[in-house]
Amino acid sequence: MGRKDIQPIYTQTYQRRRRSMIIYSLLGVILLVAIGGWLGYKYYEKQQLKKYPIAGVVLSQNDGYVDFDALKKAQVDFVYLKATQGAAFSDDSFNSNYSRSQGAQLPVGVYHVFSFSSTANSQYHNIINQVKTNTGSLPIALYIDYYGTYSDDNVDWQATSQKIIKLAKQLTHYYQRPLLFWGPKSVLDHLEIKIGTKYQLWYSDGTLGKPNGDASFLSVPGKPTIDLSGTKQSFTQAVFNGNQLKWEQYLSANVN
Question: Which of 95, 108, 122, 254 has the highest Cβ tally under 10 A?
């Protein structure tokens, strides 16, 4: 019978500890690389945002009470308020937000979330009944994106595009102001609309710092924080796709 090579117990303990140290060291390196990459990306994103001096926030009932005077002091340049969605929904905070926004003297716009399952007429009547004349001074925005089970595979874009354009024509005629089509570029491309004074674009997935064609506005990724009188709050944010001079020209051409 052969003799077994039995190592002292302290040798086995040392080897286990050594393996554990190697594993923990590798995990630490991976964690540091991940943190470094995240910090690097956030720094890059912050640098890209500096290219857009005009920034605003997008508000709905999910944001709770918001101090509009504090937004202005924080150098927020414009605000978009959710007003309606589909054929029947209205945002619970819209009337309150709109009323309080007027005292801050910020350029304000309102937006409607488009429903694939509702007719253009029913959505149009929901908007004008809820919003009335409280449209602010900026172009009305129409947010269009897939939700629920809707996707590029099951939406009839020929019929849907006609419905969206009909709603857009109704709104621009009733309110006598331009309209912003807001959503992912891949969705808005289905509309084949002519961009100009009447119809404008707002890309929800435009890459900051990159050419974004004719888009007037771009959404900011995530929900960055804004310091409001010493309290940091996260908001959905957007930027105007241009410099200060172009913003002033835009306001002059579009503000009612």
Answer: 108
pLDDT bin (cut points 50, 70, 90) of residue 192 is confident
Ramachandran angles phi, psi of 196, nearest 5°: -175, -145
Name residue 48's amino acid. Q
Looking at the chain, list the stretches that DSSP marks H as alpha helix, in order from N- to C-terminal side.
Answer: 9-49, 68-73, 94-104, 120-131, 157-175, 185-188, 244-254
Q: With CA atoms as reference, report the closest residue to 109 among 158, 179, 8.
A: 179
CA–CA distance, 12 with 8 (Å, rounded to integer): 7
Pick the closest to residue 71 from 81, 54, 52, 57 (CA basis): 57
Cα separation, 114 vs 217, in Å, equals 18
pLDDT 10s digits, 117-170: 999 999 999 999 999 999 999 999 999 999 999 999 999 999 999 999 999 999
Q: Is 193 helix (H, G, I), strand (E, B) or coil?
A: coil
What the block records as the tokens of 29 is 């390196």
DSSP 121-181: HHHHHHHHHHHTT---SSPEEEE----TT--TTT--HHHHHHHHHHHHHHHHHHH-S-EEE
Predicted confidence at residue 26, as pLDDT, reads 75
Instruction: State the pLDDT at residue 41.
Output: 44
